[in-house]
Design goal:
With about 450 residues, the chain is of the alpha+beta class. The chain is about 25% helix and about 40% strand. The chain has an eight-stranded antiparallel beta barrel.
C-alpha cells in the first residue's frame, strides 16, 4: 500500500509541472498569434500585402502546432481569407479560410469596415459549409491566467447617418474654426458597452499625408472624448469617423467609415493661428510632424524660351533691317518668385524675369492655385500680369540681333514642385505670356530651379 501511495504521489509531482508547462506554452503561443495578427493588420493597412500574408501564415502554423484554437486564431483565418479575396480574387481559398474560422469560433464575424457584398456572400457560403461539416476544431478555453474575455457576437455595424449610428451616438458640430482645437465625443449604447474596450477617432484635414488615429478617453461609464489639436485644424474640411473595438481589436460599431467619413466645414483658414500640421503618429506627443502649412515660398530658376514675333518687331542694334515674322528664341534668363500662401491652396506673389544675354527685365504679380498634392509632389496653376520687355534673337542674314517685345503682358502657367526636404525642393514651371504693346508677341518659357518654403 505504501508503494502504491508513493507511486501516485510521484506521478502527481511529475504531472503538475507538465500541466503548468503546457498552459504556459499555450499562453505564449496565444500572445505570439496576437502579435502576428497586429503585424498583419498594420501591413495590410500600408498595402504591404505580401508581408501581411507572411504574418498570417506564421500565425496559422503556430496555432496548429500549439493546438491553440482560440477566437484570435479564427480572426487570423478571416483576415487571410479577406486577403485572398482582395489581392488574388481567389474565392475558393477565401471560403476555405472563412470555414476554418467558423469551425473554430461560430461567433466570428467579418470586420464591418472592410466588408463588401461579395465578401458577405463568401462568408455566408462558408457559414453553410461549417454547419454541414463536423467541427474539426473548437475554440479552446483561454489558458489559465490569460486575460481573454469572451465576447458576445458583435452587432453588425451599419453605415450610420451623420447624427450617429444605432450603437454609437455622436452629434457632429455644425462647423469648426481654423487654428482652434476641436473636441469630439461619442456615447456607446448599453447593448454593446460591456464588450467595448477601446474607441478610436480617425480624422484628416488639408495637407495630411493619411488619416490620423487617436484613442478617445473614457468620460464616465459610456462617453468617450478626443481633442484634435489646433495644429491640425487647417484647410476647408475636417473628415473623420469613430470606431469602437473589443479587447482583440475587432470593430463592434462605427459611425462613419473611411470611404464615407463625416464631413465638417472649417472656417477662417487665413493663417488662422494654425501653427503646424502634424502627420503620422505625432498625436502621441514628441515631434512636431512634417508637411506643415508653409506661408512663404521663394524660388530661383534658370530658363529659356521662345516666341512668335510679328512684322512690328524691330532690331535693337541694326536699325533699318526688316525682321521676318515667325518663331524666335529668347535664351537664358533668370526667374525669381516670392509667394505668400494665404491658405493651403491659394497664394499670391511677385516675380522678376531678367534676361542675361542682351539685358532685359520684366516684373509682375500673379495668383496661384494648388490643384494637386500627393506625397512629395505638388502642382499649382498660376495667372497674372505685369510690365517689362522680352528680347528675342533674330537672324538678319549675316548678323544676329535682338528685338524687344512689350511692354505689357498677361501670363498663365503651371508649376510642379518635388520636395527633397520639408523646406527645399525642385521646381519646374512652364509659362505662356502674351506680350502687348508696340511690338506684340506670343511667348513661352520653361524654368527649372530651387524652391524654399518657410
Amino acid at each position: 500500500m505504501t508503494r502504491i501511495l508513493f507511486a501516485a504521489l510521484a506521478l502527481i509531482a511529475f504531472a503538475l509541472p507538465a500541466t503548468a508547462f503546457a498552459q504556459r506554452g499555450a499562453r505564449d503561443a496565444e500572445l505570439r498569434i496576437e502579435r502576428l495578427l497586429r503585424d498583419a493588420r498594420e501591413a495590410y493597412d500600408n498595402l504591404e500585402l505580401d508581408a501581411a500574408e507572411s504574418a498570417l501564415d506564421r500565425a496559422v502554423r503556430l496555432g496548429e502546432d500549439a493546438r491553440v484554437f482560440s477566437p484570435t486564431l479564427a480572426e487570423v483565418y478571416i483576415q487571410r481569407g479577406i486577403l485572398y479575396h482582395v489581392r488574388d480574387k481567389d474565392a475558393d481559398r477565401a471560403v476555405r479560410d472563412f470555414t476554418s474560422a467558423l469551425q473554430i469560433d461560430d461567433r466570428a464575424r467579418l470586420d464591418p469596415l472592410v466588408s463588401t457584398p461579395s465578401l458577405e456572400r463568401l462568408f455566408e457560403d462558408a457559414r453553410g459549409r461549417a454547419r454541414r461539416a463536423p467541427p474539426a476544431r473548437r475554440a479552446d478555453p483561454p489558458p489559465r491566467g490569460f486575460d481573454d474575455r469572451r465576447r458576445d457576437p458583435p452587432p453588425t455595424a451599419q453605415p450610420p447617418a451623420q447624427q450617429g449610428g444605432q450603437d454609437i451616438y455622436h452629434q457632429p458640430p455644425q462647423k469648426a474654426k481654423a487654428g482652434e482645437s476641436m473636441v469630439l465625443s461619442a456615447d456607446i449604447d448599453d447593448r454593446i458597452n460591456r464588450v467595448v474596450y477601446r474607441v478610436h477617432l480617425f480624422f484628416e484635414t488639408a495637407r495630411s499625408e493619411k488619416m490620423q488615429k487617436v484613442e478617445m478617453e473614457p468620460k464616465g461609464n459610456r462617453t468617450f472624448t478626443a481633442r484634435i489639436p489646433r495644429r491640425f485644424m487647417v484647410g476647408s474640411t475636417l473628415r473623420y469617423y469613430i470606431v469602437a473595438e473589443d479587447r482583440q481589436g475587432r470593430p463592434v460599431a462605427a459611425t462613419g467609415t473611411a470611404r464615407r467619413p463625416i464631413l465638417l466645414p472649417i472656417e477662417g483658414d487665413l493663417l488662422g493661428g494654425a501653427d503646424e500640421l502634424a502627420s503620422g503618429s505625432s498625436l502621441g506627443g514628441g515631434g512636431g510632424g512634417s508637411g506643415g502649412h508653409k506661408y512663404l515660398s521663394l524660388s530661383v530658376s534658370l530658363g529659356t524660351g521662345g516666341g512668335i514675333i510679328t512684322d512690328k518687331a524691330e532690331p535693337q542694334n541694326q536699325t533699318g533691317f526688316r525682321v521676318s515674322p515667325g518663331f524666335a528664341l529668347a535664351p537664358f534668363h533668370t526667374l525669381t518668385e516670392l509667394d505668400v500662401w494665404a491658405t493651403s491652396w491659394l497664394g499670391i506673389g511677385a516675380y522678376a524675369r531678367i534676361q542675361i544675354v542682351e539685358f532685359a527685365w520684366l516684373v509682375g504679380a500673379r495668383l496661384k492655385f494648388m490643384v494637386f498634392e500627393s506625397g512629395a509632389s505638388k502642382i499649382a496653376l498660376r495667372a497674372g500680369g505685369g510690365y517689362g520687355h522680352v528680347r528675342h534673337l533674330v537672324d538678319l542674314g549675316e548678323l544676329l540681333d535682338t528685338t524687344l517685345e512689350g511692354p505689357y503682358h498677361w501670363t498663365i502657367g503651371a508649376s510642379w514642385r518635388y520636395a527633397f526636404t520639408d523646406m527645399v525642393g525642385l521646381v519646374i514651371s512652364p509659362d505662356f505670356m502674351h506680350l502687348i504693346g508696340d511690338s506684340p508677341s506670343y511667348h513661352f518659357d520653361l524654368n527649372v530651379g530651387v524652391a524654399l518654403d518657410f
